[in-house]
Amino acid sequence: MIYQRKIRVEDTDLTGVIFFPKLQAIGLECLEFFLNSIQFSVKTMMLQGFVFPIVQVQSNYFFPIEIEDELSIFLSLQKMGNSSVAFEMNFLIENKVVASMSLTHVLVDKISKKSVSIPFHIRELISRLPSSFKEGKEGLSPESEGISKKKSIR
Fold it and tell me: What CA–CA distance (Å, rounded) separates 33 from 2?
């Protein structure tokens, strides 16, 4: 799945470069976009007594991401366990990977605060994601998804 996002002033520090909490927030924005696209409601899940906290985050930065850069974010399924899901995000500017992120979430019962098995219907929905960045890019270019080329990489 591809998500497009332009970097705004509020996403950067005083050097005009994005910083970690903002990249994580944009990654979560991408994940929320995907969940909405498959009709998965986080609010409904919470009302049913479950939460889906992040238990691990890993990011790698390869090039600066600056104000007005157009990011194309490729979301893929890294791994799904009994109660956890690891999502991978590759952040691109003009088809060049500038950062990557892995987010691991665990399904937790709100009352007991213990992890629970991910229900089959949720597994089916999440499994719609490609299982790798390479798989997700096959036959898919940013242009075909309406992502414009705007700025060259420094």
Answer: 10
